[in-house]
Design a protein that fits this description.
The protein has helices at residues 3-19, 21-32, 44-56, 123-142, 167-173, 223-234, 284-302, 324-337, 352-357, 382-400; strands spanning 61-65, 71-78, 88-94, 112-114, 117-119, 150-156, 180-183, 192-197, 199-208, 212-213, 251-259, 265-266, 269-278, 305-314, 317-318, 342-346, 361-364, 379-381. By secondary structure, the chain is an alpha+beta fold. Helix 1 packs antiparallel against helix 10 (382-400) and helix 4 crosses helix 10. The protein is elongated, with a radius of gyration of 24 Å. The termini are close together.
Length: 401
């Protein structure tokens, strides 16, 4: 594409999305008012809104449910060309939200607008982004004749609880494929491109003791005291990899501890759960082995008994910094915002992990403040949603045409 036609497209897309601002806001508010807290999910309610939108534009779509009501919806624009390489670009936004929690200044499921921002549960995570992408879908449908590749807009279920009923299901059981994917679920105001994510290892440790009367603790074995001693040792855990050019250091968090029923009873059981985020080039096996060695030492020294259970492990993932998506996101963000987002590593986990594991070049990029997701009075900037729609339309046109 020469500079003249490129500039014309940029101007056309900017004007188009500015004219669609009301639609983006209306769609975001409509999705927010639909209660899809996970659990239980009920993503089918939001999928109806997306499906009706697709129908109105004659966009073909499919519905996929591993469990009734836990709905995934995929809209298809364009088609695979007969040329040697006609790429497929997938964008996935999740339709579920975390529970609202407390202390909202208004009903979290009655979206409201204030000072240029949309408020409500899911505004930033991830229904505002879905509204932007629905505007992008409209634009691409109107320019479908120019697309040699295919665009897949996906509204997925269960992202907030591990994606077993969502993207994992679509990839593993429904045969969904793509060459490239962008996941707009990383916030950072479109100034960050998620190209690598730490591993996420969740562990549960159970301390076994012996119950006795609280007035004669020597007759029992206090599972809490033993757990406290063990956790102090695990707190000093040494990681194989402690630095990475795109990541902050590895972390270990004690997320929960449960034990006891009454102060006058020596507790016989204590359970603790750990969240360990480790760097690429480290391994869960190494970390688990080191913790098992710490447990063995503690059992020998204190006549204690512990069990270790792996709750889940999501290995680290990464794509090359010089992949085409990074180049296109940087190019078109510069054209719209005047700034270039930087490739970075994330401590949190997104569904880019599942995509990368399937050989799909996937990155995270999107609007929103990093402090808004899961927060009370969650909100997102309307201007950012419009800017994001402009950037994503340009990326899609570039990569698919």
């Amino acid at each position: 594409m020469n500079n003249s036609s490129s500039n014309n497209l940029i101007d056309h897309v900017k004007k188009y999305m500015q004219n669609r601002e009301k639609e983006i806001v209306d769609l975001a508010c409509k999705l927010i008012t639909i209660k899809t807290e996970n659990p239980p999910g009920n993503e089918i309610l939001a999928a109806h809104v997306v499906g009706d939108f697709f129908k109105s534009l004659q966009i073909p779509y499919t519905i996929h449910e591993k469990i009734p009501g836990r709905t995934n919806i995929i809209g298809y624009i364009g088609g695979r060309d007969k040329r040697p390489f006609s790429p497929t670009l997938l964008v996935a936004c999740h339709l579920d939200v975390v529970p609202a929690g407390d202390d909202w200044k208004r009903n979290p499921f009655e979206a409201w607008i204030e000072n240029g921002r949309i408020y409500g549960r899911g505004a930033s995570d991830n229904k505002g982004q879905m509204a932007s992408m629905m505007a992008v879908a409209r634009f691409l449908k109107e320019h479908e004749s120019r697309l040699k590749g295919q665009f897949l807009l996906t509204g997925v279920a269960d992202e907030e609880r591990g994606s077993t009923l969502g993207l994992e299901y679509l990839l593993n059981e429904c045969g969904i494929k793509a060459d490239y994917a962008i996941i707009p679920d990383v916030a950072h105001n479109m100034q960050l491109i998620d190209v690598t994510e730490k591993g996420a290892l969740f562990l549960e440790i159970t301390s076994h003791g012996k119950q006795a009367h609280g007035s004669r603790p020597e007759m029992g074995i206090n599972a809490i005291w033993n757990m406290m001693t063990l956790l102090e040792r695990i707190k000093q855990l040494k990681f194989k990899q402690t630095s990475h050019p795109l990541h902050s250091p590895p972390t270990l968090n004690l997320g929960s501890i449960h034990s006891g029923t009454s102060p006058n009873i020596v507790p016989a059981l204590c359970r603790a759960q750990l969240d360990i985020r480790y760097l690429p080039d480290d391994s869960a096996d190494t970390i688990i082995g080191n913790i098992q060695n710490i447990i063995k030492e503690a059992e020998t020294q204190y006549s204690a008994k512990f069990d270790l259970r792996i709750i889940s492990n999501q290995p680290p993932t990464a794509v090359p910094i010089d992949n085409p998506l990074v180049e296109l996101i940087s190019k078109h963000t510069l054209a719209v915002l005047g700034t270039k987002p930087q490739p970075k590593g994330m401590s949190g986990a997104t569904v880019t992990k599942q995509l990368i594991q399937k050989g799909i070049v996937a990155v995270g990029f999107g609007p929103g403040d990093e402090t808004e997701a899961h927060a009370t009075n969650e909100s997102i900037s309307i201007k950012e949603l419009v800017d994001f729609a402009q950037i994503m339309a340009l990326i899609a046109m570039d990569i698919l045409s």
